[in-house]
């Protein structure tokens, strides 16, 4: 009987490898024997693999945006680039677009977003109607931790709305109505008396001024002159209030055309652009499409849970955006597959927060 190993099996299993490139990175996780050091832990993600590596790459990409943003503009570029009248923020070497879905404002990620806006670290914000109203509502009343499994029928009987595992009492929206209706009245009066052309971004800035609350994202956007765009502003409680108001005091007009020109101009007239987009849908496409107008963003980070098998823009990888001219061919974009309530605060801790501290101490 032949006791030798079958050659076909031996050849299949013991295939000879080519040598790895000299610059190949070795997989190595954090060693807790070295103590508990959260910064070192985060730095180790780059060599950990899977989505930890993608998060590490995203941190590097955002830090590249911030490094370029802090670089002084050359005299030649100052002459070459001229922002339109709507782009009244001081010019920087990298205009950063931040987009996020409404659920993140409902959650505690709002505080991380507010920090970034408060410290003037982004140049343009895009979100949905819920991403606007939930910020103001939280200035008026609290949102609570609940459970994903709480039964909807019972919650409806109690007048409590569920957002995932968060609970928003319906009284919160009643308080929102009481707060916003007099402001809408004022806006109609100013529109008629002073020919003001309201746009979604102007409405949001006005509400940020009126809320006058340092916990609000849009208070700081107003203070720092960061434009906030929400092309579907009526798709939420704000839309409900505008609908009710149209019976009580009809006539308010909100112009989308002025805003799309202003939004696209943020990209067209920028020296360089970076996109940081949490979630998908409208916010992702609106930012990417504005950057198409300049033949693509220079830096990009997508952070969401969507996949591309259904052809959705939400799930599309950055490579698809390159095909449309929404990201430059020479760019090194990153997509992190994961849930932003975990990922974004970690990213802020390794990017925006140390940059803000460094900027503060250097002044």
Biggest β-sheet: count, sense, barrel? 6 strands, parallel
Oligomer: single chain
Q: Assess the beta-strand content as a share of residues.
A: 5-15%
Strand order of the largest sheet: 6-2-1-7-8-9
Low-pLDDT segments? none
Radius of gyration (Å): 24 Å
The separation of the N and C termini measures 84 Å
The topology string of helices and strands comes to HHHHEHHEHEHEEHHHEHHEHEHEHH
Please state the structural category: alpha/beta
Quote the average pLDDT: 95
Provide a descriptive summary of the structure in words.
The protein is α/β, with parallel strands linked by helices. Helices cover 50% and strands 10% of the residues. The chain has 17 helices and nine strands. The strands form two sheets. It has a six-stranded parallel beta sheet, with helices on both faces. α3 (50-69) packs across α16 and α13 (256-268) crosses α14 (282-292). The protein is globular and about 95 Å long.
Secondary structure: elements and pairs:
Blueprint: H1 7-13, H2 38-44, H3 50-69, H4 75-80, E1 95-100, H5 102-106, H6 109-118, E2 124-127, H7 129-140, E3 144-145, H8 152-158, E4 160-163, E5 166-169, H9 171-194, H10 200-211, H11 217-223, E6 228-229, H12 237-248, H13 256-268, E7 273-278, H14 282-292, E8 299-304, H15 318-324, E9 334-337, H16 340-350, H17 352-362
Parallel strand pairs: 1-2, 1-7, 2-6, 7-8, 8-9
Antiparallel strand pairs: 3-5, 4-5
Helix pairs in contact: 3-16, 6-11, 7-9, 9-12, 10-11, 13-14
């Amino acid at each position: 009987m032949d006791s030798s190993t079958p050659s076909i099996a031996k050849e299949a299993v013991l295939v000879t490898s080519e040598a790895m490139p000299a610059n190949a990175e070795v997989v190595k996780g954090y060693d807790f024997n070295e103590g508990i050091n959260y910064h070192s832990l985060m730095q180790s993600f780059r060599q950990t693999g899977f989505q930890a590596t993608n998060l590490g790459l995203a941190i590097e990409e955002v830090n590249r945006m911030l490094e370029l943003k802090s670089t002084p503009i050359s005299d030649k570029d100052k002459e070459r680039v001229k922002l339109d009248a709507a782009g009244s923020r001081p010019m920087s070497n990298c205009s950063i677009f931040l987009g996020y879905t409404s659920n993140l404002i409902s959650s505690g990620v709002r505080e991380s977003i507010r920090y970034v806006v408060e410290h003037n670290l982004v140049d343009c914000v895009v979100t949905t109607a819920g991403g606007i109203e939930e910020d103001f509502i939280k200035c008026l009343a609290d949102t609570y931790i609940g459970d994903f499994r709480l039964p909807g029928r019972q919650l409806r009987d109690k007048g409590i709305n569920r957002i995932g595992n968060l609970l928003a009492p319906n009284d919160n929206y009643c308080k929102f109505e009481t707060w916003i209706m007099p402001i809408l009245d004022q806006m109609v009066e100013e529109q008629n008396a002073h020919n003001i052309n309201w746009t979604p971004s102007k409405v949001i800035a006005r509400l940020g001024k009126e809320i006058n609350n340092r916990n609000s994202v849009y208070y700081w956007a107003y203070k720092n002159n960061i434009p906030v765009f929400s092309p579907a502003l009526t798709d939420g409680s704000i839309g409900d209030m505008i609908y009710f108001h149209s019976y009580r005091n009809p006539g308010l007009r909100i112009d989308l055309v002025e805003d799309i020109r202003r939004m696209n101009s943020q990209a067209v007239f920028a020296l360089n652009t970076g996109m940081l987009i949490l979630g998908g849908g409208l916010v992702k496409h609106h930012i990417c499409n504005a950057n198409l107008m300049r033949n693509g963003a220079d830096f990009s980070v997508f952070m969401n849970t969507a996949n591309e098998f259904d052809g959705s823009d939400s799930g599309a990888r950055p490579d698809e955006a390159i095909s449309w001219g929404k990201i430059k061919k020479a760019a090194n974009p990153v997509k992190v597959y994961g849930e932003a309530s975990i990922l974004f605060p970690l990213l802020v801790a390794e990017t925006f927060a140390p940059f803000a501290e460094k900027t503060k101490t250097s002044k």
